[in-house]
Amino acid sequence: MARKFGKKKDILIDPLAYNIGIAGLSGIGKTTLVKNVCEKLVGDDGYIMLDIGKESGHSCLTGIISEQAPDWDTIDEICDDIVDNRTTDYKDLKVVVFDTLDEMFKLAEDEVIARWNRQNSDKLATSINSVAGGFGRGLDMVIDLVLERIWSLKEVGLSFIVIVHTKAKDIEDPITGQTYQVITANMAQRYFNAIKTKLDILGVAYIDRTIVTEKLGRKDIKGKEITRNKVADEARKVSFRADDYNLDCKCRFPSIVSEIDLDADAFIDAITDAIKAEQAKSGVSFEKAKETQEKAEAENLKKVAEKEEKNREEKALNERLDKIKKFIKDNKSDLDKVRPLAAKAKELGFDNPTKVTTIEAADAILELIDD
Q1: How distant is the alpha carbon of residue 312 from its chain centre?
Q2: How many Cα atoms within 13 Å fall on the side-chain side of residue 96?
Q3: Could you tell me the pTM of the whole model?
Q4: CA–CA separation, 88 vs 344, rounded Å?
Q5: Which helix (H) or strand (E) segment is 95 a member of?
Q6: How confident is the model over 265-309, as pLDDT tens digits?
């Protein structure tokens, strides 16, 4: 008997099929890099970048495909519309970019506090740390909210990229007890760790400077030559793997280059080359694997379309049933108005006008109401 569970996994060929993050200081070029990467890989119709919270940086980039998301309700509205119309209005969409993740977590905190206070008027929370009695429960609720929102897109075949601000932070080694500095996300470490574990690739953008010491041509009162440090040159880089651990980056592909110039072509090449190196171990040609996966993606989109249509029909039916229920509630004392609805439902094979299961039956009953 063939085993039921356990099968070999195939390396995905599409670079955007992976969960990607880009971190870096404000203004270093993270958004521009991601915009250019998306345009080169999927074109204008293939991506949407959400300008979240108080970012508002997309207005400085000509031609960017962007949508403002100043609050959590707007994030929900945008993502729900994409999910509900994935194979129609957004049939060419491949990736959604969250810019920035730190702002998204801030909005999620506000949403979690608001939801808690609506449901617990006797235990109002003034901060995320006081939600659900504290002890990190509020933080966990924020993490769940953010991850559920992002994963709703993955469930309909879309990828995501998150953009993150960074800061320098002192870290204590748990073994030696020594402290060292690392460039990491500018948010609660609990939040960052929750998303970092889900990322396949996290590149950290930084400025690589060459510092030289120059003599000023004079001496101090002790006769010592006076010098100063000067930036001789600098270059913007993206690191995928830091051997000295001073950059909080990550990549699941062992063959990826350690660092590249902050450039869209270099970024795409680095990920593509790493994918090819790993895929070559399968014994299947790159072209054949790509063809097979494109067919599988097309089949998956068919299933998404079927589910999308079913959800659309359920929503339409529920809207009709709500109208029928409201009419019956408003006219419960006037049986002459309600009886025709019950009679029509029985004629159509249903015991109750509020329990019909087809749009056609609901429309037939609504015709009596409209008349």
Answers
A1: 24
A2: 26
A3: 0.82
A4: 35
A5: strand 95-99
A6: 999 999 999 999 999 988 888 889 889 888 988 888 888 888 888
